[in-house]
Design a protein that fits this description.
alpha/beta, four-stranded mixed beta sheet, N-(1-d-carboxylethyl)-l-norvaline Dehydrogenase, domain 2, 12 helices, Rossmann fold, binds NADPH dihydro-nicotinamide-adenine-dinucleotide phosphate, about 300 residues, single chain, globular, binds ketopantoate, five-stranded parallel beta sheet, KPR_N, about 50% helix
Length: about 300
């Protein structure tokens, strides 16, 4: 299988690196600055699952350079999505590749399906805590990594089977899920609470789990996301809702969301893609999400980085 990682940030380099390590044919679609950095420094991963380094990765910066690929791992941020869709579309039209998006959230799914056709877009999510350091190397900080994927159309069965075959050679866990949309909604519910509240508090998760009033806010966000999931045809059981709450408790007190980390660094945040996306879906279904709406309102000024005043 020949894969293209579109967006060589923390997630793309981590999973792309693991696929390379397993002997897969992998290339990276990047912008000029990142291309230079990867050519100068190579791809490096520092991880509890094992360090990895490759000094000679295949890099493309224009759609015309991309060879025949079977799978595109889409690992840009939500706020990049609209600008990359035409490029993805051009690659898919020429190569027939399937797209496995690993972005948090759900709004990208409909946009990608509209642009590429439902048969081309798999379901997927990533559970990992990773970031790029100042040299552009991946730093993976939790103990393991998990990539979940699954078919959303009968034409995707074969590519899922091909992904399953790779698993035994991978240091990361790639897990095929029959009900991938349910898993995506669980992750979306978790991240909407986790990212929104850690960013609004500007404090790590221990201040959610250790403060009953704040934990109550998290529970309300998760309940609101449950209501939304149900409107989208995914019923989250009480056990699943409790599982999402437990997920928050499983993090070390000092851990925090990537949104909070980005906010601290003055970088853009995925507020529109995550909380904004939930509100747009709520409007479509005519439901109210008052707690998410409040968090969205508090964080919106930080959307493009810390405002100067
Ligand atoms: N990091 C994590 O631990 C996790 C992240 N996620 C989700 O995964 C997604 C990606 O996150 P993450 O990897 O952290 O983000 P990063 O910011 O590290 O990476 C995104 C990459 O996309 C690249 N990109 C943007 N536009 C283009 C373009 N036009 N062409 C090529 N490359 C482009 C950026 O390149 P450039 O350098 O040029 O800006 C950047 O390297 C997000 O939705 C996030 O919420 C999910 C689970 C865990
Ligand atoms: C929770 C975490 C770190 C990993 O799944 C994540 O997705 C994020 O903070 O954006």
């Amino acid at each position: 299988m020949n894969s293209l990682v579109f967006g060589a940030g923390a997630l793309g380099c981590y999973f792309g690196g693991r696929l390379l390590e397993a002997g897969q044919d992998v290339s990276f679609f990047v912008r000029d600055k990142r291309a230079q950095q990867l050519m100068d420094q190579g791809l490096k991963i520092s991880s509890p699952e094992g360090d990895f380094e490759n000094q000679n990765i295949a890099i493309y910066t224009s759609v015309e350079q991309v060879p025949n690929v079977d799978l595109i791992l889409l690992t840009v941020k939500g706020y990049h999505l609209d600008s990359v869709i035409p490029q993805i579309q051009a690659i898919v039209e020429r190569t027939g590749a399937f797209v496995l998006p690993l972005l948090n959230g759900m709004e990208h799914m409909e946009k990608l399906q509209e642009a590429l056709g439902k048969e081309k877009v798999l379901g997927g999510l990533a559970a990992i805590v990773a970031t790029l350091d100042e040299e552009g190397h991946v730093v993976h900080t939790n103990s393991n990594s998990l990539l979940k994927y699954g078919a959303l159309h009968s034409e995707q069965i074969q590519i899922c089977e091909q992904l399953e075959e790779i698993q035994q050679r991978l240091k990361s866990t790639f897990k095929r899920e029959a009900d991938i949309l349910r898993h995506m909604w669980i992750k979306y519910s978790f991240i909407t609470a986790f990212s929104g509240i850690t960013s609004a508090m500007q404090l790590p998760v221990g201040y959610i789990t250790g403060t009953p009033a704040t934990m109550n806010v998290a529970k309300k966000v998760i309940q609101e996301m449950g209501t939304l999931a149900e409107k989208e045809g995914i019923y989250l059981s009480e056990d699943e809702v409790q599982g999402i709450i437990n997920m928050m408790k499983s993090f070390k007190n000092e851990a925090t969301s990537s949104m909070h980390q980005d906010l601290r660094k003055g970088l853009p945040i995925e507020i529109e893609h995550l909380q904004g996306g939930a509100l747009r879906l709520a409007e479509k279904h005519q439901v109210q999400l008052p707690v998410i709406e409040t968090i969205y309102g508090i964080l919106k000024p930080y959307e493009n980085g810390r405002p100067e005043y």
